[in-house]
Design a protein that fits this description.
The protein has 257 residues and is α/β, with parallel strands linked by helices. 42% of the residues lie in helices and 17% in strands. It contains ten helices and eleven strands. A six-stranded mixed sheet has the order 1-2-3-6-8-11, sandwiched between helices. Strands 7-9-10 form a three-stranded mixed sheet. Helix 4 packs antiparallel against helix 5 and helix 8 runs antiparallel to helix 9. The N and C termini lie far apart (45 Å).
Amino acid sequence: MSDEPRVLVDHADGVATITINRPQVRNAVDRATAQAIAAALDDLDARDDLRAGVLTGAAGFFSAGMDLKAFSASGERPIAEGRGGFGIVERPPSKPLVAAVEGPALGGGFEIALACDLVVASEEASFGLPEVKRGLVAAAGGVLRVAERLPRNLALELVTTGERISAARAYELGLVNRVVPVGTAAEAARELALVVASNAPLAVQTSKRIVIEAPEWPADERFARQAPMIQVVRESDDAQEGAKAFVEKRAPVWSGR
């Protein structure tokens, strides 16, 4: 095994770039890698100077999902306490996270991308949940999240055929936000994350929370449920700063409070 860190983390301009660094196994995730991803996401959530993140893979691959060699050797599963499979799928970060996908994102790789908020994919990327071809179910969020994001018949096509789709098709279906030239996914994802990071952090995180939670709210309670969250933002220092900066025709300086 390489002595290189399993996960590389870079912080710049309010964005955490998290790179799965196991190119010798196409960035497959073992338990130690899942724990390292979870630790990087914990850091993203905890630090006031970080406002968004990018998750990508080294050497032109996103992730092959679970490290099957580690599993076959010892039964090891890539689970991190507190965040679940692959260090992300059960509890993604509260701050926005952009997946930068090069190459195939199949099975667990697709599930990792689905756990992110936005997805940037290269033209040669592909996506699929082939678990049914192996007698399994995409249980690390694949079936659950595809069912949330696609009409029922399209979700069922993906999860029952196990066939992969192209980046262009994933874009048509709304699973991907941007399709970019090969080799530029990480750069494009960082550019998108920088746009997110330029906005008021409390407003961004609250907006994300409402988008995620609102589908579970009764229709006649939605405005009442969001009201206390929005009130906190409305009364924040950043709301005052945003209005003041607009009047003074300058860029706002956010405090996150």
